[in-house]
């Protein structure tokens, strides 16, 4: 199946060390800029309803604003409880100043 990449933001919208919530169709995603590399995961914490893009990015881990679980934004893996389910990750492509995400 060929991948369909969709333009969701510009690189200036998510500078290094920052997070950005974007919507694609019915999905809310979080973009994270780790030292110039852009990663995308689901925005909703897998523990309860909290928007991770309102949390804090430290290195390649985002901290949930509600109960403090940390997730690796490269892999989606939970690094600290209470969350124990990984975040879905999304394929990212940067084309010039455009950030594109592969959608289903
Ligand atoms: S809602 Fe994210 S850790 Fe509880």
Describe the structure.
There is one protein chain. The protein has 104 residues and is an all-beta fold. It has one domain (4-103): 3-layer Sandwich (Rieske Iron-sulfur Protein). 0% of the residues lie in helices and 49% in strands. It is built from no helices and eleven strands. It has a four-stranded antiparallel sheet, with no helix packed on it. A four-stranded antiparallel sheet has the order 5-6-7-8, with no helix packed on it. Strands 1-11-10 form a three-stranded antiparallel sheet, with no helix packed on it. The mean pLDDT is 96. It binds FE2/S2 (inorganic) cluster. FE2/S2 (inorganic) cluster binds next to loops. FE2/S2 (inorganic) cluster binds at residues 45, 47-48, 50, 64, 66-67, 69, 82-83.
List keywords for this structure.
mainly beta, binds FE2/S2 (inorganic) cluster, 104 residues, Rieske Iron-sulfur Protein, globular, 11 strands, 4-stranded antiparallel β-sheet, 0% helix
What's the layout of helices and strands?
Layout: E1 4-10, E2 19-24, E3 27-34, E4 37-42, E5 56-58, E6 61-63, E7 70-72, E8 78-80, E9 89-90, E10 92-95, E11 98-103
Antiparallel strand pairs: 1-11, 2-3, 3-4, 4-9, 5-6, 6-7, 7-8, 10-11
The chain binds FE2/S2 (inorganic) cluster.
FE2/S2 (inorganic) cluster binds next to loops.
At a glance:
It contains no helices and eleven strands. The chain has 104 residues and is an all-beta fold. The protein has a single domain (4-103), classed as Rieske [2Fe-2S] iron-sulphur domain (Rieske Iron-sulfur Protein, 3-layer Sandwich).
